[in-house]
Write a structure and sequence with these properties.
Order of helices and strands: EHHEHEEHEEEHEEHHEHEHHEHEEHEEHE
Mean pLDDT: 84
Low-confidence stretches: 161-174, 378-414
Helix content: 25-40%
Strand order of the largest sheet: 3-4-2-1-5-14-13-8-9-12-10-11
Number of helices: 13
Shape: globular
Largest sheet: 12 strands, mixed
Radius of gyration: 25 Å
Distance between the termini: 32 Å
Number of strands: 17
Strand content: 15-25%
């Protein structure tokens, strides 16, 4: 990626009856934001005009019909919705949720196809939203399903007999494994489950799921957040289930084995710790992120420490996506009092992650092949270890190696 060019950020309007468009207009009152990125708002020009007048905003925007028409140095508004949209500030409706989904789907497609570099999703109903006959608890979940559906269609078009062409959003797939990471100045927290009933979350608690999420979190820290040697703390399931407290079955038989498995692989994963002992600034500073078992363990302490909402990074997706760490805030919609800091932070984060991911992936694109041959001289070369390819009996007979030893070989320098 050219480090000098401006990042193109797709920003969706969110729920049209919430604070989404209000926050977007406020964010770009500062002209220096246009030096950071080229913003393209996905939504309805008519709704944007309504909010601009209602809030008395003097922020101007240019309506475009295609992402290629976006220009640097200005707020671009891509007209995803041309029809009239009924606006009822502060009241979540089916129509307002559908408008949010349409804008999000178009933005995802453009980022996926390389027309945009990253996505900032405007806030929607905290309780989730409906799309046709499906319910999604988060925008991350919907985006993952949209990307998976597209991947299935592409596989089918290429003649993959195993592709499920009829798959719709909401079907269970494993190809897109998203991880919602709540990021602030003091800490970063991810959860094994994204919410819902605690009883259902308990069914997802397995050694494999804990190990998989922790490994994914480590990779996100390296690839997206530029943490070279990340350290992750894993929380216990029970309130006093930390290793120094009174661990229960979940800690002893499920979580601790996952931590031990990753530690033996050389990864810096620690725990399990009880939330009440770990979720304090002086203890969190020893770790780069926390993996909690469920939201109630970390969300309240996070907001207390950050004194704000933070940013949700939807990691694990093939596209870069973030959103403010709050919902549509219907209770203050249209009152011109919404705090814009989380929206600005989300834009900053997407811009940073796009560049960092590009820097991380570039050297991985064409790795040099490793060529080996058995060492035949005593010259100073880089040494590697490998199993002896000779017959054990023959090697032992000449006294060169023990039948259980691993001989040294060196890299081919040719």
């Amino acid at each position: 990626m050219n480090e000098d060019r401006r990042i193109r950020i797709a920003i969706t309007q969110g729920d049209t009856n919430g604070v989404g468009l209000e926050l977007i207009l406020k964010a770009f009152e500062d002209p220096t934001m246009f030096e950071l990125c080229t913003p393209v708002v996905y939504g309805s020009p008519k709704v944007a005009s309504y909010y601009r007048k209602a809030l008395g905003s003097d922020v101007s925007y240019t309506v475009i019909n295609d992402a290629d028409d976006a220009r640097d140095g200005q707020l671009n508004l891509l007209a995803v919705i041309q029809d009239e949209v009924k606006i009822d500030m502060g009241q979540p409706t089916v129509e307002s949720a559908e408008a949010a989904v349409k804008a999000l789907a178009k933005a995802v497609a453009d980022v996926r196809d390389g027309l945009m570099d990253g996505l900032v999703a405007g806030p929607v109903n905290e309780r989730g939203f409906d799309f046709k006959d499906l319910h999604f608890d988060s925008q991350t979940e919907l985006v993952a399903q949209l990307l998976e559906r597209h991947a299935r269609k592409m596989a089918a078009a290429q003649g993959n007999a195993g592709a499920d062409v009829a798959a719709e959003p909401g079907t269970a797939t494993a190809a897109v494994n998203a991880l919602r990471l709540l990021v602030g100045d003091e800490c970063r927290v991810a959860t094994l489950t994204d919410g819902g009933r605690l009883r259902n979350a308990a069914d997802m608690l397995t050694t494999e799921s804990v190990a998989s999420k922790a490994a994914q979190l480590l990779q996100v820290l390296r690839r997206d957040l530029d943490v070279n040697n990340p350290r992750v703390a894993v929380l216990a399931w029970n309130a006093r289930g930390g290793r120094d407290d009174r661990p229960g079955y979940e800690e002893l038989d499920i979580i601790a084995p996952a931590v031990e498995q990753l530690s033996q692989d050389g990864r810096q994963v620690f725990g399990p710790y009880s939330a009440e002992r770990l979720m304090m600034p002086d203890r969190l500073r020893h770790y780069d992120a926390v993996l909690a078992m469920h939201r109630d363990q970390v969300v309240a302490p996070f907001h207390l420490m950050e004194r704000g909402d933070g940013v949700v990074l939807s990691a694990g997706l093939p596209i870069v996506m973030a959103e403010p760490g709050h919902g549509a805030c219907f209770d203050i919609a249209g009152k011109n009092i919404a705090d814009v800091s989380a929206m600005r932070a989300a834009i900053y984060m997407v811009t940073d992650v796009v560049r960092q991911r590009s820097r991380y992936d570039e050297p991985m694109g064409n790795p040099l092949p490793k060529l080996y041959h058995e060492r035949r001289d005593e010259s100073e070369k880089v040494r590697f270890r490998s199993n002896d390819r000779r017959e054990p009996d023959a090697a032992a007979a000449v006294g060169q190696v023990d039948t259980q030893a691993e001989p040294e070989i060196v890299a081919d320098e040719s």
